[in-house]
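Entry
Fold in token form

___
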Amino acid sequence: MSPPVAKGDGTHTFSVTYENGTDAEVLPGGPSLEDSVSEIGPAALVVRPGRSFDDYVTDYDLDWLNDQAAASDLVPPLAEGEKRAVPVHVKPTRAGVPVTVEVAVPDTGYRATAYFQLTVG
């Protein structure tokens, strides 16, 4: 995952890079666009306000501005040895919003979900 970059309009961008280190093709986003992304989970890529242990936050929020584009980037198969960066564009409701990014695995035979936390705004 790349560090967030502040844009002049109050939004932030970062990317999540998927790398297929297996000896077969994988589907990083799952079988459909609906399974690929979510702001609450579960999905292949979840981007939500709050720390990883927060179930729900009420004093701030986060808009994921390009969730459908990210889903479209996740659905195509990832060939053996291939990498793909998925851009994420978010807008927090105030400065200093903690963001949790959850990256789930395409199959239960792989490692557990990875959690990343960053601050935007």
The chain has a mean pLDDT of 91. The beta strands are 5-6, 12-19, 37-38, 45-49, 62-64, 83-92, 97-103, 114-120.
